[in-house]
């Protein structure tokens, strides 16, 4: 989700006493990131390549797995079977929901209040999601020694829950919270318990309403509920500038994680993309690096994706069905 590189913001922008010009700069940053986020969301990935014959694709990917050291790269298509909606799918929530930007978490108190109220509700539903067959079959492939590792764009933690050991969550995961003022970090379960204690009866009052929950754990709730919501502060410094440890629009992938991705890529013999159109640059770049190195790329996805034209095997299939074929 790192479509733009954020400009390092001077600390003065953090205070509510910031001068008018500083706040205009912050608003310009927010507006620019919004524009970039919307461009990314609107990006239609067109069909650029002819899919491989399914039998040829299955044989080809099976051979890549036999050769070993396959780097698996997964996206939202892996988790839809666990009830987690796909932002970009046909009924994708990005059609009517734009996720928070990093700049909003930093500078926009109103947006942050809205996010945490909605997320308090949405995260409980995300937290109930369980791994599906695709997650378990990928864990099996790792246990059989076929994989160099697994990189996921998903922030739901379901690969680890299914037993995959070497998982690199490219965009972080929702299980940790970070303080944007002091850097302290807290588990989501602990934060959730504190929020619940600060908002007695809140969830019961909401229970009668219908909710749409989005992949970043955000839910659509009424303005009144957002106003009533009481956010809690950082355990270390009291700041309410808290953000899930997830890479949001306008935020780069942390350098150490980029390095880990590069090392995994260097070690791997081939790339297997599952359930992703690679619409986001940080994941598309992984495929570009494999193409540049002359290593085979296989794509298993139901819709078109950005790496299709570079794929050795382009397999149009349901990810779970394909994994069954590959592992039987
Ligand atoms: Zn703090």
What do these coordinates show?
- This protein has 328 residues and is of the alpha/beta class.
- It is 42% helix and 13% strand.
- It is built from 13 helices and nine strands.
- The protein has helices spanning 20-42, 54-67, 76-79, 102-107, 109-127, 133-143, 158-161, 188-198, 202-206, 223-228, 255-267, 281-292, 319-327; strands spanning 70-74, 147-152, 167-169, 172-179, 185-187, 242-246, 270-274, 297-300, 313-315.
- The protein has a six-stranded parallel sheet with strand order 3-2-1-7-8-9, sandwiched between helices.
- Helix 7 links the parallel strand 2 (147-152) and strand 3 (167-169).
- Helix 2 packs across helix 13 and helix 6 packs parallel to helix 13 (319-327).
- It is elongated and about 60 Å long.
- 42% of the residues are buried.
- The model is unreliable at 1-23 and 89-95 (pLDDT under 50).
- The structure holds zinc ion.
- Zinc ion binds next to loops.
Percentage beta strand: 5-15%
Would you report the number of β strands? 9
Following the backbone from N to C, one meets helices and strands in this order, namely HHEHHHHEHEEEHHHEHEHEEH
Structural class: alpha/beta
**Could you say what the CATH topology of the domain at 51-84 and 132-171 and 251-328 is called?**
Rossmann fold
Q: How would you sum up the global shape?
A: elongated
Task: Return residue spans where pLDDT drops below 50 for at least 5 consecutive residues.
Answer: 1-23, 89-95
Gyration radius from CA atoms, angstroms: 21 Å
CATH superfamily of the domain at 51-84 and 132-171 and 251-328: TPP-binding domain
In DSSP terms (H or I, runs of 4 or more residues), the helix count works out at 13
Helix content: 40-55%
Distance between the termini: 35 Å
